[in-house]
From TrEMBL:
Transcription repression requires formation of a complex with a corepressor protein of the Groucho/TLE family. The keyword GTP-binding does not apply. Keywords: Developmental protein, Differentiation, DNA-binding, Neurogenesis, Nucleus, Repressor, Transcription, Transcription regulation. GO terms for biological process: animal organ development; cell differentiation; negative regulation of cell differentiation; nervous system development; neuronal stem cell population maintenance. It comes from the Eukaryota. It comes from Amphilophus citrinellus (Midas cichlid). Transcriptional repressor of genes that require a bHLH protein for their transcription. Plays an important role as neurogenesis negative regulator. SUPFAM superfamilies: HLH, helix-loop-helix DNA-binding domain. Its main location: nucleus. Residues 6-62 form the BHLH domain. GO terms for molecular function: DNA binding; protein dimerization activity. InterPro entries: bHLH_dom, HES_HEY, HLH_DNA-bd_sf. Pfam families: HLH. This is Transcription factor HES-5.
Length: 114
């Protein structure tokens, strides 16, 4: 019976420690939230649920920004690779077309747009 009695006394203590951990983490989240989120309800005391909802909203926005940035970086890398593959130099295209179409000295001269 003493073990049962010990477990009965221990259960409220464990529950109290669990609640303290939860409250501590919620306070930490509150301190990490940006002032914009905290100013959404300036006159009312924030409930734990409010802090959790604001945290979820903040993390969702952060994830969307990260996804957008990742997508942008992939597009930029793809564009950079395409630019490296394509040769936009007027010298190379003129010399190539001049030498493949006609090998006469007049057509092999550099093309100038002016």
């Amino acid at each position: 019976m003493t073990l049962f009695f010990f477990l009965q006394l221990r259960k409220p203590l464990v529950e109290k420690l669990r609640r303290e951990r939860i409250n501590s983490c919620i306070e930490q989240l509150k301190s990490l939230l940006s002032p914009e989120f905290l100013s959404q309800q300036p006159d009312s005391k924030l409930e734990k649920a409010d802090i959790l909802e604001m945290t979820v909203c903040f993390l969702t926005q952060l994830q969307q920004q990260r996804n957008l940035l990742t997508h942008f970086n992939k597009l930029q890398t793809s564009c950079d690779e395409n630019l490296r593959e394509a040769d936009f130099s007027p010298l190379s295209s003129t010399v190539q077309t001049g030498t493949t179409k006609d090998t006469s000295p007049t057509n092999s001269a550099l093309w100038r747009p002016w």
